[in-house]
User: Fold BolA protein from Falsiroseomonas stagni DSM 19981.
Amino acid sequence: MTAMNTQNRAARIEAAIRTAFAAREITVQDDSALHAGHAGARPGGETHYTLRIVADAFAGQSRVARSRAVHAALAPEFEAGLHALSLRLLTPEEASRT
Assistant:
């Protein structure tokens, strides 16, 4: 059995983000129930997530570059049925001001 099959999607997302960005803080919230009946929603859920990530790796990057990097890190999840992300991507300095 592969890791894709043995962990829930939230755990896989967190692991992928930690690996890709050495994130200081990660919050993964499954919002799939809020999208039931909408495009991309599946009966089993695990399709729509909100992520808050604090990482030094985002320093000097635009919001678009940060978003693209997160989407690239989660490409296997999108291929396996992840449909949508709401992202809050911050450097530690930015996080200290919020």
Remarks:
- The chain has a mean pLDDT of 88.
